[in-house]
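Dear V.,

Thank you for sending over the compound details. I've combined the ligand you provided, zinc ion, with the protein sequence from our construct and run the structure prediction for the complex. I'm sharing the raw inputs here so there's no ambiguity about protonation or stereochemistry in the SMILES, which I know was a concern on your side last time.
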Amino acid sequence: MIIDSHTHIGFEDKYQNQGPKELIRLMDRAGIDKSVIFPFGPVFSKNQSYHSENIKISRYSNNPRFITFGRVNQLASDSLEEVDRINDLKFKGIKIHTDAVPLNPYTDLVKKLNEYHLPILIHTGNNKNADVENLKHLKYEGNIIIGHGGKDNVSSAIELVNSRNNFYIETSLLSLSRTKKLIREVKDKSKILFGSDAPYDLPELEVKKIMHACDYDRGLVRDILGKNLEKIL
Ligand SMILES: [Zn+2]
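Below is the predicted structure of the protein with zinc ion bound, written out as structure tokens.
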């Protein structure tokens, strides 16, 4: 079973959009059975609520090809209510972006997230807000999936995964050499999860990347491509 842990459905702008049929076509080309789906970034403003986008995503909850995650915006005035709604909508997890602001200073939101303990996929990147180091101070007790493997700060991300029980790491958009490093240095390999970030990268390329990075070790490939994620959903 191959499961992609990071894809988007919906519309952000002319260049950033993807429908379910387009995604399924990409999944079929890559041999992917299921994809975790959640909305794109805000369309109207930085503090946009994800309420309507989450409702749209929830329509796919019974589709056997998709695993639905809701999205919460720390800057939205309804962020706490949205976490309750995400739980009501029976989403399997939550996606949080951090380019505009990190998550840890929003203590009320973190407290609310701790009521449900859903897995949270958190974007990490190279700007200060999205720095994986911020997650050191995050008081979340559920499972945390480091999105994009920490990007330039992949070493800090690996350290965090090795020192905290509830930290996992997802491989989308990482170079082949960084992916190899991650597979070499993460001690518990069951914490490594495959993700493509489709439509930003092609799922079939990301699958190939994992196979190369694992040196075609079939057991390891199988675990990273799907089994590891299945265990925490
Ligand atoms: Zn993404």
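A first observation: The chain has one domain: 3-201.

Warm regards,
I. M.
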